[in-house]
Amino acid sequence: MKIAVSIFSFLAVLIGTVLFMQFQVYSDEVGSVDKGYNYSQEIEIVYRGESLDIRQHFKNLPKEELTIEWPRSSINPNCFIENEHSCARLSEDSKKFKEGETRAQSISYVIPLENGLQSRKLMKNVFASLKDGNVQFSTIHITTEQEIEGQWVTGIPLIGEQKLSLVNYSMFSGEGPVKDLFWQDGGFDLQNKIGALSIYSKTPLKPAFYEKLENVKFLSEEHLAVINGTNIDGMEGFRMLFLPDITVAKVQQKVIISQLETTYDFGESPHWLKEMVASFLTGEIFGSEKTKYISSTVTAQMTDEQLEEWRERLREMEGEALNVESLDALLSEVLGASTKFLTMNAQLDKRYPFLYNDPREIYVNLKKQSDVQVILKDAEVLYSADSLLKHLGYDVSIGENGYYVTSETRAFRFPNDPGFYVFNQRRYNTVSLPIKQVAGQYFIEESWLQRLFLVEINKSSNRLTITEPGN
Fold it and tell me: 259: which of 62, 99, 437, 450 lies 20 to 30 Å off by Cα?
């Protein structure tokens, strides 16, 4: 018993030191609700048979009214009376902290665990939070009965563990929020800590793995737990990365993509776009074959100065929404000419070549048409044939003998073989191709468009007008 008391005394001093330091660091960064605010938290967790009993202490709170977001799975939300002021601001319905000067408040709740504590079970969104608030620092204490042996993972650094006569105790502490919990039995342990990464594994990893990992360039210093294995639900955890058959390459890719997703809002963007941004920010191209093609192709269009500007502009967009359209716009600014390279590669399964496009509005017979593309390829101006010719009143189709364009009085066939075209059943020899394919799409060259379809093309600084006779 004396040993247990001594250990708890030591831990109490350690905890007090950590909390004092975090208070000193973050107490000046409280802010206000209108501007967004910061707070820190300390969470005590006790596993009791079929549930997690949780006490959560919010610290460095602003004086405004704050909305509590309870975990959906929680029951018995209540005040936790730590001292005479610890519940002074909690509303009667336990939904808010009322306006007040008290900067620390405490609550308690229970998270039921169906089938009890299960090994390799990822417990999602088990903690309360404050609406519109940012957690600057978290400290977590976890206690289980002595016979329950296993490793807890929270996503923030493990500070220490103790096996006592009646209980097992773990403490975690670090910057940022915590949302999920993971537990695994059977010799699963923290193997090493490399920079901002904690590596958990059932089997030790070779020294060469850690040596290579130390040389990997990541995007931020936010701590992540890397778990050599899977969870039984196959889900991703907040600040936890599950990697079966772990390798340095897998860690590099998974960690960097995870860091990007917390830095930028990619929405529904394709995965290769994230890999492309990561490749430019780290200076090392990696990912799928499509990512490598796109990244190397973009790089080939740039001077060294443009490449550095591109990287800097990407860094400046932290916190903003990124998608193929916004990055095409940014890329066009850096290159000084308009391109839809990323957009077109997102729309097509096959590779789309790097092309410049005419950004001007396009009018056909005085009507604005947004589906007509104008691109520059091999020093030729090409117009998207399907959409443009339909706006000019023609039907288009692809047949066994080529590309067909027809109206009531005119019929064209552009064969797959070069050298001629057919107009109203008469063959005409050519030196150049009127109709060309680019990544599976049909385009018509500008001078042939004027010659064969009798249109007039007028160009101004912001508008391109295509007009048929009589319009």
Answer: 62
Give the separation between CA 254 and CA 197, rounded to whole angstroms: 12
Tell me the C-alpha distance between 402 and 412, whole Å. 10
Distance CA 277, CA 331 (A): 12
pTM listed for this prediction: 0.77
Residue corresponding to tokens 């009993």: 53
For every residue of 161-194, DSSP letters joined together read EEE-SSEEEEEEEEES----EEEE-SS-EEEEEE
pLDDT at 36: 80
Q: Is it the case that residue 15 has pLDDT exceeding 80? A: no
Delineate the domains of the chain, giving CATH numbers in brackets.
Answer: 2-183 (2.60.40), 264-347 (no CATH), 358-467 (3.30.457.10)
pLDDT of 35 reads: 65
Give the bridge partners for 144, in sequence order. Answer: 168
pLDDT in tens, 111-163: 999 999 999 999 999 999 999 999 999 999 999 998 899 999 999 999 999 98
Q: How far is residue 202's CA from residue 227's CA, in Å, rounded to a whole number?
A: 9
For the segment 411-432, the average pLDDT, to the nearest whole number, is 94
**What pLDDT is stored for residue 9 in this prediction?**
46
Give the Cα-Cα-Cα angle 284, 227, 56 (nearest 5 degrees): 115
DSSP 223: -
Q: Are 94 and 107 in contact (CB under 8 A)?
A: yes
* pLDDT beyond 70 at 216: yes
Q: Which two tokens stand for residue 269?
A: 């963007």
Q: Helix 271-282 crosses helix 289-300 at what angle (to 10 degrees)?
A: 50
Instruction: With beta carbons less than 8 A apart as the criterion, state whether 56 and 108 touch.
Output: yes
Helix (H, G, I), strand (E, B) or coil at 412: strand
Token pair, residue 215, equals 């040389």
For residue 5, the model assigns a pLDDT of 39
Q: Is the pLDDT of residue 292 over 90?
A: yes
d(CA 71, CA 143): 20
Owner of token pair 């007040």: 100
- Alpha helix positions (H), 242-323: 248-263, 271-282, 289-300, 304-316
Say whether pLDDT at 176 is over 90: yes
Contacts of 2 (CB under 8 A, 6+ apart): none
